[in-house]
Amino acid sequence: MQEGRELVTTLETNNKFILSTAFSPDLKLATAGIDGNINIFDITTRQIIHQIGAHALPTRCVTFSQQGNLVFSASDDRHVSVFDVVSGTVINTFSHAGMCLSVDTSPDHRHFIVGCSDGKVLLWDLGMQKFIRSYDQHKDQVWGVSYNKQDEGRKFASVGDDYLLQVYE
User: Fold this and answer.
1) Regarding the domain delimited by 18-168, which CATH topology (the fold level of the hierarchy) does it fall under?
2) What angle do CA 93, 120, 141 make, to 5 degrees?
3) pLDDT 10s digits, 56-81
4) Residues facing 165 on adjacent strands
């Protein structure tokens, strides 16, 4: 157990409800909001680097690439968007049949997975910018997906409203 943790800073969210947050390797912090926006903060300076009008509907999940140069967002508008952290501009947007509820990036810097409201887990190739495979084992919404960062991304897991934790290899 880690003891002695203290509050070191509070960052203003402009009275917007935040649904997800993630740290980059270089201590940037991204937030995903109910308003569809993404904020990227520099923790060292306690300043907002970018306010990105990313999605038309709530942004459910935000995560950084392993290098920290890209941020991925999953939204109720049925899109996963990929942004350049330095410029704050969109690199690409990937469309889905269901609302996008969760996203995670692989340690190989090439793939990402998406959990959707239609019960699907989708594997994408970012380098080729194409859909690879759909996993349809869940019977309800997929709220969480996660790569195993210790095995070069050979395994990933998903959890959903069907009370199942599924591991894929």
Assistant:
1) Methylamine Dehydrogenase; Chain H (2.130.10)
2) 100
3) 999 999 999 999 999 999 999 999 99
4) 159
The string of pLDDT tens digits covering residues 73-113 is: 999 999 999 999 999 999 999 999 999 999 999 998 899 99
**Tell me, what's the pLDDT at 99?**
97
pTM of the shown model: 0.91
How would you label 73-105 residue by residue, b for 16+ Cβ within 10 Å and e otherwise?
Answer: bbbbbbbbbbbebeeeeeeeebebebbbbbbbb
Q: What is the DSSP letter of 3?
A: -
Helix (H, G, I), strand (E, B) or coil at 47: strand
DSSP secondary structure string for all residues of 69-82: SEEEEEETTSEEEE
Alpha helices in 69-156 (DSSP H): none
